[in-house]
Amino acid sequence: MDSELNLRLLGMLVQSSYLMQTREKYRGQGRLLILLHLYGSLTQRELIELTGRRSATLSEQLDGMEKSGLILRSKNAQDNRNIDVTLTEQGQAAALQAMKNRQAFADALFGAMPPRKKQQLAGLLDSLLHTWDIPLNEEEYRDHTV
User: Fold this and answer.
1) How buried is residue 87: exposed, middle or buried, by Cβ count under 10 Å (0-12/13-18/19+)?
2) Were both Cys, which of 9, 10, 42, 117 would link to 46 (CB 3.0–4.6 Å)?
């Protein structure tokens, strides 16, 4: 019984994850845009630490973002081995749009759920992340439109 429920929960998480990934306009870039908007210039190493992405994956995403005119990359003034990543004006606009898209998606996804159920779900997910020792970057998931 417990194994069956574990598989059902896994399936529900996978479906939820797929839904969230396919509905985001900027997909993987959206989170990078938002982080750069919130923190300003970050090194590629800091972005790897914040996102948990592999170096090669991040580099590939940053290449695409640079070609699209969303970011600029430059050598770090303190350490030439590090690369600073900064949003362009176009990138700032895209970051704001990504934040609006994220908020609209969250509202559509959870809007019909009663507040009590949302609090329960948040508590359960918080407990799960804590069990897995995965910190949630609260700043990244705050409403910044206020």
Assistant:
1) buried
2) 42
